[in-house]
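Researcher: Next entry in the queue.
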Amino acid sequence: MKQIDLSLLHSNSVEQIKIDEDVIFPFEFYENTDIKGFHFVHVSGDIQRSTDEDDTLDLAVSGEMILLDAISLEEVPYPFSFKIEGSMKEILGNCPNTLAILELLWENIVLEVPIRFTKVEDFSKFHGDGWKLVSEDDNSHENNPFSEILKEFGEE
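Model: Structure for this entry, 156 residues:
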């Protein structure tokens, strides 16, 4: 499903083109990104002719990408889902006779990649010589060498 032929839609032979497919992205799409792979990506929806010059796109995309955990650096699944809706002229800039669906999906999947993602819940095993990783809840300011100065600013 790399290209969707829209010529039947443009010649008014069909009213809509239904899409309900699993998509496989080639490694070249994500080889230089934070994405390490995909468990699955599914796209469903339709393309309809709205005017003689424009088509309407209504797609629902869901899947699971594999990312590196920001703390443990293990590969972890990250679920995502989004919709692509609207005029194809607005989305693509023109109304071609074929739609490169992989490129369209990829442009939207890239927007779903989080800056940092972790599934680590037990921070106790992440420590070293003189340091340890703590959660925001466990972060205390008891041993802060600047606590006296901070108190002075708070009193003014």
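Model: The chain has a mean pLDDT of 83.
Researcher: Noted, moving on.
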